[in-house]
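Why run this: before we spend reagent on co-expression, it is cheaper to look at a predicted model of the complex and decide which construct boundaries make sense. The entries below are exactly what would go into the expression plan.
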Amino acid sequence: MTHISDDDADARATNPDASDPDAHVGRRPSTIGGRAQVFLQGFRFLLAVLRARPMFAVGYGIVVSVIVMAIFAPLIAPYPPETANPTDFLQPPSWRHLLGTDATGMDIFSRIIYAPRIDLTIAIAGTAISAVVGSLIGATVGYYQEVGGAPSFFSGVVMRSADVLQAFPVFVFAIALVAIFGQSLQSIIAAIAFLNIPIYLRLMRSQVMSIRRMRFVEASYVAGTPDRFIILRHVIPNSMAPVLAQLSVNIGWSVLLTAGLSFVGAGVVAPTPEWGSMIAMGFQNIITGQWWPSVFPGIALAVTVFGFALVGASVEVLADPARRRALSGNMRQHRAKES
Amino acid sequence: MSKDSSHTFKVSRRTILKGSAAVAGAALAPGALSLGQAQAQDRANTMVVAAPATPQSLDSEYDVSLGTFEAVACLYDGLVAFEKKPDAGVPTASREDITDYPDKPGGVNLVGKLAESWEVDPNGTSVKFHMRKGVKSNWGNELTAEDVVWTWHRKLALGAIGGFYCNTIDLTRPEQVKAEGSHTVSFNLDNPNPLLLKLQPNLYNPIYDSTKLKEVATDEDPWGRSFLENNSAGFGPYELASLVRGQQAVYKGRADYYGGKPAMENVIFKEVPTSANRAQLLQGGAVDIAQYLQPLEIIALRNAPNVAVETIQATFMIWIELNAKMEPFDSIDVRRAMNFAFPQEQIVKTVFQDLASPLTACMPDLYPGYNDDYWEYGKQDLDLARELIKGAGHGDGFTTSLSYNAGDPVQEPMAILYQSALREIGVNLELNKIPAATFYNNVSERKQPMIFYVDSPWCPDPGYSMNLYFHSKSFINYSNYENARVDELIDGAAKTNDQAARLEMMDEVQKHVMREAPWVFGISPGYTMARSKDLMGWTYYTSNNMRFQDFYRAS
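The model came back. Tokens follow.
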């Protein structure tokens, strides 16, 4: 979805969505009624999209469920997630313990319900920090990339630093960062943010480099608007689409990375309910027949990452005008066939 | 599904999972074993061991890593060894006879190894060993008294593990160990020492081939340290055929060994880091012995055909050091409260599957002098623990942390169970998982308020055990425990050969220690031998390692 400043005639002229009948969802209406109408239209469009691409609906369903589960965990979970019960250790799934218990008697269902509180907090916080920091750096670098002199040199240095950062194996680098900063929630968030910054930096830079050449930016520059204002008000808002599409995919990836770190002992500290940590605590029991302490958290992890991937895919489609037009065309054909 | 049935290997879904785990395990294990490897060798005289680690060094002075224990035990021999006797609980196993024998020299029941005979001075200040003649090292050099002298001088000079043993018997000067002839050597102390003879069978008191080590010595390395990193020079029943660290060590039985060539002529010692993989390899017949298995794996293997699993009373002890120099554990009442809150019985049942017993004293229960009369923490008593904490001025409880070893799978569940119990008395226990590689640094730094420790004193003597853990000047008194009376008793017991008086003194030490609780007295796990059914002859040693030379294949 593209955001265009209403004040800028050039922006309208260059808006790639201008000829798109569904592009109205991105414009800022002037009245409350108008906004409501736009919202409703947008919602209807989203429903139509989900009907046309049911897997997107599955993705949204998973993500919403996981978020609801995290928020209402104390109401849903039948047992405290961190209290061991030695009289009930390694119980298989039953009505009393829906997904069984682990080696210390903790209820696996309750822990799975609580786990997204940690996993999503880490993933969302890490991704958000990286998106903000990476986008700001990327926008600055992209804006000054071709102006020559010191700013260009500085941009080059930043890009080469990002190359170096991305040359390290991600997982090993994450373990090293956590080892350096200590094993805590903040360290894991910092590690995830640090690792993701180059992704957003590159995305934003490439977008900004093309936006910068547009007439509404040039007009603003000629009008004497400070660079800082141009970047924040005109350039970044019009370059956000790929960043937004990347967010969901990255959250899923961060959940996976968090679980991976916990699995190798570099993530959250036991007995904090976290999927990777739960898998690590239970995987040795598979060989002795107690598969449930590790398999159920594994399934929860896989489904969640899959959900975020699907949401990411949907945002990618919806944020890309060409693909959105193609989708709209398909939907119209579909409706025509039905009628 | 009942708990018992959950341990069987009957359900098809499990079979699929197990099969996957086995394939993955075999594929992931460094130097992955083909399942037919053991069979491909001559099974009658070849033994394959799945171990958690290969030896890091072949020098007993510096390395106490897991794989090195077995290496030292097969490459080297000591002067004497404890006589063996059948184990009362496990008919197929033998164990060292570590009982006190007042009528025998030094009060111990020994058999000769490199020494044929020995004479102990009645006042306990000296012992003379007459060496076996015609004994050859793996380099072909004949054993002489000079080898013993050089070995002990090396301990004194390097001052590492051997230095600790020298201190233990109060051997401070090189001239105290001297050759009395080509095959006679004497140890001469300034004061009587009850451990002078008893310490000789210790696994880490082997005799080196000094002729070879002098050959390879340099000005910078006069004691052959570099050479012993990768080579051996000893008089043991095996020689090292190859060593690829992280993969495997291969030992070859020596035909010229004075005790005869070992029945297991070839030993392949494979590194398989994950215990589940080791268990799977044993079950599949790819290895003959799987070391250091987890309790649930041991239980599961009991149902496996062609596998024998036996757990024997051992010297292992797992406890939690309470740092007596840090708040709130500078208070005896708080330390006692931590013991009353410890869910010992539950841990034995859940984490150890009853393959362990509660640690009821501050030394192994099979050592002479052990006394559990002072054990008062057997029943978890949260009310009393709460009262003690309140009395110590921590009415609302407190927050502390427990550090545990990421490489030891039993410590995390133990810590979680303990955390839940302590929560009920207002103690917020934060868990601190420390990577195995740096765990022992954390232990020895003594900066953690609570930290797990696993150990066993390798000399079956109460004075030795008490000195290790509770003398204020001991290097491994990791709880910073200090009691002048305890120090006095330990020092006193180290200077007399009157065993009855020593036992009395050590009894009093146990009384003080149990009352003042510098540890959370944890668990005493058994030693488990998981082996092919046809592999016989195993002996349990107080050093909790096996010796390949004991084994033979049942025909």
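Chain B touches chain A at residues 1, 3, 6-9, 11, 13-14, 17-18, 21-22, 274-276, 279-280, 294, 296-297, 299-300, 343, 346-347, 349-351, 406, 409, 412-413, 415-417, 419-420, 423, 430-433, 435 (CB under 8 Å). Residues 499-516 of chain B form the longest helix (18 residues). Bring this page to Monday's planning discussion.
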